[in-house]
């Protein structure tokens, strides 16, 4: 069935919006009709590119009657207030990950969406990446038995990308857990059924100039018996993309000559100059998003099932079976992040929820906090707010 395009409003025209541009420019199922942002420069650029209306506040955007849904791409600590405002206007919501920084905020967001009767999708997140969806289909087909163990591993330059000061303060949502760990947690929860029982973790905050967590390793155990090991380092040394066909997280081809570029760009910058550098990478500055040449990914991930190991790659899933090894392709869609727009269309036109609802996002956020707490206490932490991959009825 063909539906009319979803009329989307955007809140926040920064880096995250920039990374959605290849999707918004190429997916005909969505039409950008309005935006709200504090910077006049980005509002003007939006109207010049997409037409439509540009507002200064979330309340004006939420009150616009010609909008079906709003993509919230503001800093994470603002997500809860913004979700409440948009839900009060009766619009469906796509809110970028993480759902929030605190679990109290996450509770407010679940309640706001429920009270308004709107759908809330937490995304984009790498759990929507097509090879993850393909792996889920392969697992569901049952030929290889149950998922027993997942290894998820990612070494990046995350901590040395230009940041606003609060992005380097853990209590305000800074560091690798809330921005990066949540992708890995979402993927692993999807593959292992969603309901983690406990976490045992260590974290590293090794650079006094950037005194937030830059690394962690965590063991999760799941209802059903599977377990997972999640490791992340954002310290800009080893780069695990060399094990992903030299494809970057965003699907671009990586040039080995660019080694060290992130740290070099920050050399001698004070926090204000660094925040300004971040601003130059956002919408309305003339900067353009990287062009994906392959599917996005979140580092090497290996899923051990009874009768095969599955390796997620940008181009698909490699299956190491009992006797044969094969590769199942996952083609790059001309409009990247298609599964995110599938979820948006389902929410707006079919009143259907994806797995990545507000409750799902809250459960992934609980794991982020549990990793921090386990590392601080040197003890396993029991999880109490997990959700599974539930049916439509149980999500409501
Ligand atoms: N999924 C992804 O690939 C991805 C990538 C980057 C960031 N993110 C997420 O997106 C969110 C934003 O991060 P970012 O890196 O784009 O930050 P950013 O600072 O580049 O952008 C945030 C934007 O929000 C705007 N803003 C601030 N207050 C506002 C308000 N009251 N109303 C409207 N707009 C307001 C700012 O002007 C800025 O342009 C974060 O939650 C982050 O985790 C996701």
TrEMBL record:
Stretches assigned to the Gfo/Idh/MocA-like oxidoreductase N-terminal domain: 7-123
Signal peptide: none
Keyword Nucleotidyltransferase annotated: no
Domain GFO/IDH/MocA-like oxidoreductase: start-end pairs: 135-240
One Pfam short name: GFO_IDH_MocA
Keyword set, alphabetical order: Plasmid
Listed name of the protein: Gfo/Idh/MocA family oxidoreductase
């Amino acid at each position: 069935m063909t539906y009319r395009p979803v009329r989307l409003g955007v809140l926040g025209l920064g880096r995250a919006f920039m990374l959605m541009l290849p999707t918004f420019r190429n997916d005909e199922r969505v039409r950008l009709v309005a935006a709200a942002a504090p910077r006049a420069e980005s509002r003007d650029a939006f109207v010049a590119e997409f037409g439509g209306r540009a507002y200064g506040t979330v309340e004006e955007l939420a009150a616009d009657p010609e909008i079906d849904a709003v993509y919230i791409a503001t800093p994470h600590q603002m997500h809860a207030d913004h979700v409440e405002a948009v839900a009060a206007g009766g619009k469906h919501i796509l809110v970028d990950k993480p759902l929030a920084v605190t679990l109290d905020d996450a509770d407010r967001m679940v309640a706001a969406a429920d009270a308004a009767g709107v759908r809330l999708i937490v995304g984009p997140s790498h759990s929507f990446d097509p090879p993850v969806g393909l792996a889920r289909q392969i697992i569901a087909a049952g030929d290889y038995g149950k998922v027993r163990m997942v290894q998820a591993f990612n070494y990046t330059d995350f901590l040395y990308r230009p940041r606003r000061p609060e992005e380097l303060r853990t209590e305000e949502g800074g560091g690798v857990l809330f921005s990066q760990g949540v992708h890995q947690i979402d993927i692993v929860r999807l593959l292992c059924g969603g309901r983690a029982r406990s976490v045992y973790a260590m974290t590293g905050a090794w650079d006094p100039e950037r005194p937030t967590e830059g690394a962690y390793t965590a063991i999760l155990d799941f209802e059903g018996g599977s377990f997972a090991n999640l490791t992340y380092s954002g310290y800009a040394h080893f780069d695990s993309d060399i094990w992903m066909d030299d494809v970057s997280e965003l699907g671009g081809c990586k040039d080995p000559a660019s080694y060290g570029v992130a740290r070099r760009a920050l050399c001698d910058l004070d926090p204000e100059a660094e925040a300004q550098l971040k601003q130059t990478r956002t919408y309305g500055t003339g900067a353009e998003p990287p062009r994906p040449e392959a599917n996005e990914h979140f580092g090497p991930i290996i899923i051990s099932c009874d009768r095969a190991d599955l390796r997620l790659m940008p181009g698909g899933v490699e299956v190491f079976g009992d006797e044969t090894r094969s590769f199942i392709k996952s083609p790059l869609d001309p409009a990247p992040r298609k599964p995110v727009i599938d979820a948006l269309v389902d929410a707006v036109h079919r009143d259907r929820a994806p797995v990545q609802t507000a409750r799902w996002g809250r459960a992934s956020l609980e794991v982020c906090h549990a990793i921090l707490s386990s590392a601080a206490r040197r003890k396993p932490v029991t999880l109490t707010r997990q959700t599974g991959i539930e049916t439509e009825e149980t999500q409501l």
